[in-house]
């Protein structure tokens, strides 16, 4: 029993890959994969996720309390509402990047809270330590706005944000499979950091400045540079994604983290330093167009390339499974191409809720299976990964059965 084709979809030719790792042949007819599948305990993962989210949320609450002490409640709420606008833009970009192989929602929530809470809290504590050290030196040490903005802030903030990506690499290794995943987590953390930072900037502009200064602040922070922190931190996400792709251990990932940290700090320092080197709005605009815009375009091109690479990997690995009987060629086209997925999801929307969800899960778990296969082919063979492969096989057989159930009257059924 299989989905021979998506309604109205002629299967596209499937790339024939090299067979570098045997695949266990599918039983005929298809039955549950193993009589006693390995079921990893979910209780431990749920506890870790809840604890992590609660701690990160408490850190964000502390940040809000701190901001309220010198902004006031009104300015805090005003800044918060205004900061939601650029945050929404960045999160929409995250959703687009993450559309092919979505990351677990709890991990994304944790990433956002890490950026908005723990990263900001870490930067504030470090800055407080610097201020206390300077005050205790009895004049032996003096503060410098340039050193604070160009040296301290880039190092402290990128370490704080980047460490969050590293924590996710350690905690959700199963879902951290490559550079796109690293970009998604890094972008989400950076968006959270910029959100809390923008609350402060917008709140201060409201309480201490004029309407014109508030407008300029929003233009710079909300229009010109909502992706500035993202551009810095994705260097770390890309590095850790490369570590995941190469099967690096948790300890070896620290080296990749440091490798990505260097360009992240450099780009952040370049951005902050431009405000000291360049004088006048015209010079800043020139710098933005000549330096920041090309960097942003390069980042977009990298993400587009990585997303297309994900599609190629999915198509190639699912084809290998189809040769062993787990999928038909039409199903591979449906699951491994953008056109096939869109038509399958459109068909699912004409069905009842259970079948629509089954089609979504069929696509999502097939994509996860393809990336598990890719890791196995790359030599990352572990008992846990084979157990996860077995679990995905069983889930996919269940999803297929659900999708192939009775269709709604008037809806085109999937061929059997």
UniProtKB/TrEMBL annotation:
A GO molecular function for this record? metallopeptidase activity
Q: Which InterPro entries match?
A: PrsW
Q: Which residues cross the membrane?
A: 46-67, 73-94, 106-126, 146-171, 183-203, 223-244, 256-279, 285-306
Region named Disordered? 1-36
Q: Locations of Low complexity compositional bias?
A: 22-33
Q: Does the keyword Cytoplasm apply?
A: no
Q: What GO biological process term is on the record, naming one? A: proteolysis
Secretion signal span? none
Extract the coiled-coil ranges from the record: none
Keyword terms of this UniProt record: Hydrolase, Membrane, Metalloprotease, Protease, Transmembrane, Transmembrane helix
Indicate what this protein is called per its UniProt record: PrsW family intramembrane metalloprotease
């Amino acid at each position: 029993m299989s989905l021979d084709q998506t309604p109205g979809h002629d299967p596209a030719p499937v790339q024939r890959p090299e067979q570098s790792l045997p695949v266990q042949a599918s039983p005929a007819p298809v039955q549950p994969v193993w009589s006693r599948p390995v079921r990893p305990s979910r209780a431990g993962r749920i506890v870790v996720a809840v604890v992590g989210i609660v701690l990160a949320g408490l850190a964000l609450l502390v940040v809000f309390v701190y901001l309220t002490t010198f902004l006031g409640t009104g300015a805090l709420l005003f800044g918060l509402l205004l900061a939601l606008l650029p945050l929404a833009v960045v999160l929409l970009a995250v959703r687009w990047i993450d559309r092919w192989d979505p990351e677990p929602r709890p991990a994304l929530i944790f990433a956002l809270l890490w950026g908005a809470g723990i990263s900001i809290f870490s930067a504030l504590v470090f800055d407080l330590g610097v201020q206390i050290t300077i005050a205790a030196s009895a004049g032996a040490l003096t503060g410098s706005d340039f050193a604070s903005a160009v040296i301290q802030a880039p190092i402290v903030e990128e370490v704080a944000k980047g460490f969050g990506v590293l924590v996710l690499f350690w905690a959700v290794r199963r879902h951290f499979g490559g550079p796109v995943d690293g970009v998604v987590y890094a972008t989400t953390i950076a968006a959270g950091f910029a959100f809390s930072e923008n609350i402060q900037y917008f709140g201060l502009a409201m309480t201490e400045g004029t309407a014109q200064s508030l407008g300029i602040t929003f233009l710079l922070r909300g229009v010109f540079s909502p992706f500035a922190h993202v551009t810095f931190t994705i260097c770390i996400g890309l590095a850790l994604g490369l570590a995941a792709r190469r099967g690096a251990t948790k300890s070896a990932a620290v080296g990749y983290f440091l490798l990505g940290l260097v360009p992240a700090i450099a780009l952040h320092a370049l951005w902050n330093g431009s405000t000291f080197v360049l004088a006048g709005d015209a010079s800043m605009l020139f710098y933005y167009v000549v330096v920041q815009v090309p960097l942003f375009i390069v980042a977009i091109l990298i993400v587009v390339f990585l997303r297309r690479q994900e599609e190629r990997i999915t198509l190639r690995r699912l084809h290998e499974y189809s040769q062993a009987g787990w999928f038909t060629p039409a199903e591979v086209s449906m699951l491994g191409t953008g056109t096939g997925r869109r038509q399958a999801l459109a068909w699912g929307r004409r069905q009842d809720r259970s079948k629509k969800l089954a089609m979504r899960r069929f696509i999502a778990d097939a994509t996860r299976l393809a990336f598990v296969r890719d890791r196995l082919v790359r030599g990352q063979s572990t008992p846990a990964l084979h157990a996860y492969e077995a679990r995905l096989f069983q889930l996919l057989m269940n999803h297929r059965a659900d999708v192939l159930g009775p269709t709604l009257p008037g809806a085109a059924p999937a061929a059997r």
